[in-house]
Design goal:
The chain has 213 residues and is an alpha/beta fold. The chain is 45% helix and 13% strand. The protein folds into 2 domains: 141 residues, HAD superfamily/HAD-like (Rossmann fold, 3-Layer(aba) Sandwich); 65 residues. It is built from 9 helices and 6 strands. It has a 6-stranded parallel β-sheet with strand order 3-2-1-4-5-6, sandwiched between helices. Strand 5, helix 9 and strand 6 form a beta-alpha-beta unit. The longest helix has 18 residues. It is globular. The relative contact order is 0.17.
């Protein structure tokens, strides 16, 4: 029996969170907006437009479209040249694909940075579907996105393993009926115990993906 996987991207497949956090906090600093680093946990599941809306609500005085464009410009360069896979991810993806599992991605990151990064890492062709939240016109804080993803994959939502390092997304996917595996990332290490309570499984890195068989 083959597994069906739905992977988050940032912090799960790739070690992008330090790059993403530095970029977003830099924008707030440049515009003189008071903040603390916890804002990154808030905006990560929201996508770039959601993040722009949140920044404006914090007092950043910039047109929403212009702010989204600024985020995209900086992120495209970083993802196209700097962001690397997390430990054991590439070997695990090749192994899962070779044995016939269905591999899919669902992320808040736009295709403009998602697709070039996966292509540069040599794994884009391994996935049956690579989705950004923009493909669903909603965010990963909405349970509907998970049921819609399962429908598009063509299997019952309960048969999908969803993997994410963000406890909010893990909780929402669980509410939607997916089997959920939390993934360790340094950016969310403080939520490890919470994720272990929420999720059906938890892995420190992708060398432990066999636990989901």
């Amino acid at each position: 029996m083959h597994n069906t996987y739905l992977f988050d991207f940032d912090g799960t497949l790739v070690d992008s969170m330090p790059v993403y956090a530095a970029m977003m906090l830099g924008i707030l600093r440049e515009h003189g907006v008071a903040h603390d680093e916890s804002v990154i946990k808030t905006i990560t599941p929201l996508g770039y437009r959601g993040a722009a809306k949140h920044f404006i609500s914090m007092g950043l005085e910039k047109d929403e479209d212009a702010l989204v464009a600024l985020m995209h410009e900086r992120a495209v360069k970083a993802y196209s040249t700097q962001v690397e896979a997390k430990p054991h991810v590439l070997d695990a993806l090749h192994m899962l694909h070779a044995r016939g599992d269905s591999l899919n991605v669902l992320t808040a990151s736009p295709h403009a940075m998602l697709d070039p990064c996966l292509a540069r890492l040599g794994v884009l062709s391994l996935f049956d579907n690579v989705w950004s939240c923009e493909d669903f016109d909603t965010t990963k804080s909405d349970p509907q996105i998970y049921t819609d993803a399962a429908r598009r994959i063509g299997c019952p939502v309960r048969d999908v393993w969803f993997l994410d390092d963000n406890p909010g997304a893990d909780k929402t996917a669980k509410q939607a009926g997916m089997r959920v595996c939390g993934v360790y990332d340094a950016s969310s290490a403080e939520y490890t115990d919470e994720m272990k309570r929420i999720c059906d499984a938890y892995i420190a890195d992708f060398s432990q993906i066999y636990r989901l068989d």
